[in-house]
Amino acid sequence: MAGFRDNWCNRDLIWCVFDYAFNQLGCKKVFGQVPEANAKALEIDLKLGFKIIAKIDDVFPEGACLVLAMSREDCRWLKIKPRALRSLQGE
Length: 91
Description:
By secondary structure, the chain is α+β, with helices and mostly antiparallel strands. 33% of the residues lie in helices and 29% in strands.
């Protein structure tokens, strides 16, 4: 994840990302990587529901690379209904 403004991401966008990966593509698990030194990115990823599954030392100049994963069963974002879809359906 990366953005230039603080409020670029919202619940609808997060739902779209995980709906695409898990429902449209049929992935059972998604992965990501983040430098261990990037505390802000790691915090966001963990709040989204990713779990650290591996640490690879000396990947980046500032240290290790953390490998993150989320399974479809653990994705709480699929349980929400995006506001934009609700408004299109007249709810």
